[in-house]
What does this fold into?
Amino acid sequence: MKINKFTQQKDFHEFINNNHIIQEHVQFENDICSRHANDDDFLLEGYCKVCDKQTNFLVDRLFGSQITEQGWIPNWRERLECQQCRLNNRQRAILHVIKEAVEKKSTNPVIYAMEQVTPLFSCLKQQYENVIGSEYLGEDIESGSVVNNIRHENIEQLSFADQSIDIIVSNDVLEHVNSPEKAIAEIYRVLKPNGEIFMTVPFHANEEKTVCRATLNNGTIKHLLPPVYHGNPISDEGSLVFNDFGWDLLEQMKMIGFQDVSLCNYWSDLYGYLGEIQYYFWAGKSNS
It folds into this structure.
């Protein structure tokens, strides 16, 4: 898997706009869509790095597919579901790079995932010894509490000791946090020296500044923009989006202490990582 790392918006846009490889990727995906213009769903052959075997990736019209002249374009980020582990594009990609990170560690790392009742967490538990997961269960519950076998963590106030975690996995969580700067500070606090975070968020690559959609103060939500909700594995009500992140997210992480912060662009037809601009964020804590 080819990974291109970016720390600045201008470098990212120069790469996207002037790289013929990106255009080849787009054409490859458009050709797939043209072949399946009359299908509601289809399967693509590939290799799943989570399962470590050949598989078929399901592509369907869920989660906001778009209609174009070439046919319908799926939400590549949320589909390409492996028919064995049932993980989608972004979930498999994160586990892929975590797998490579673990292989570089000299000891069995402590991994904290900001999810617990998901297929991704189940995969982590099956593959590694020291894995902790959690969900957000409510404002009035103390972090570290266990309710019906589910650990609660408010990532603005984590219960973990300083420098106790090697790798943190955060998949589309930070946008649902009222105060992302507090959450980032907590992540930095609990990571060990040389610790790493692998994170996905819905990211607005054309925007320099993060846009606040809502605030929470003393239990009262104030909407600054029309409310947007994402799916929540433990609540039918979904999770409110508090922030639409722009490039200042990287600078915010650096200000809190992270030495290296990158937006990591990836693509692979073999591994089922399609989509014009797919990315995750990586940040590392120095060893000092």
